[in-house]
């Protein structure tokens, strides 16, 4: 998928980087606006109970995220980053291997969305800096 999106980015005269890069504010703002537009389309499709439009919005979101990865030159490290974040997310589970869900389990943090999995005492931050520095 990353190679196909890279191909589109190239022929579409969009930014492609080979090494981790911070792009200009305008380029970052464009990527943000593209993501925001698809998030709103997703929400509308959910409200309309439209599975086809949900799939369309999800696919467009994925395409934009992959394009953003390519524009920042992070295609060679994104899988390792994902695995690091996954391990960190799994460390949110409590000592019994259960999630602490906001609004359930006797936990309520009004600063977080209801239904969000909260951090337990086992939580550790993902070490993404190691991927950028290598």
Summarize the structure.
This protein is an all-alpha fold and 134 residues long. The chain has five helices and two strands.
Question: Can you lay out the helices and strands and say which pair or pack?
Answer:
Blueprint: H1 2-11, H2 25-47, H3 51-71, H4 78-90, E1 100-101, E2 117-118, H5 129-133
Antiparallel strand pairs: 1-2
Structure report:
This protein has helices at 2-11, 25-47, 51-71, 78-90, 129-133; strands at residues 100-101, 117-118. The chain has 134 residues and is mainly alpha-helical. The protein has two domains: 2-71; 78-133, no CATH class. Helix 1 (2-11) packs across helix 3 and helix 2 packs antiparallel against helix 3.
Number of domains: 2
Class by helix and strand content? Answer: mainly alpha
State the low-pLDDT regions, or none: none
Helix content: 40-55%
Please provide the count of β strands. Answer: 2
The biggest beta sheet, please? 2 strands, antiparallel
Hey, roughly how much beta strand do the residues contain?
under 5%
Mean pLDDT comes to 95
Figure out the total of helices. 5
């Amino acid at each position: 998928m990353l190679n196909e999106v890279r191909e589109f980015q190239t022929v579409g005269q969009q930014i492609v980087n080979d090494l981790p890069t911070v792009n200009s504010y305008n380029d970052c703002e464009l990527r943000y606006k593209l993501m925001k537009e698809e998030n709103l389309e997703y929400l509308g499709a959910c409200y309309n109970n439209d599975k086809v439009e949900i799939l369309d919005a999800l696919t467009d979101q994925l395409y934009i995220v992959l394009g953003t990865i390519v524009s920042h030159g992070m295609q060679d490290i994104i899988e390792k980053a994902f695995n690091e974040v996954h391990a960190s997310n799994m460390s949110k589970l409590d000592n019994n291997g259960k999630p602490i869900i906001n609004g359930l389990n006797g936990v309520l943090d009004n600063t977080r969305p209801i239904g969000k999995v909260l951090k337990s005492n086992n939580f550790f931050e993902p070490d993404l800096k190691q991927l950028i520095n290598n």
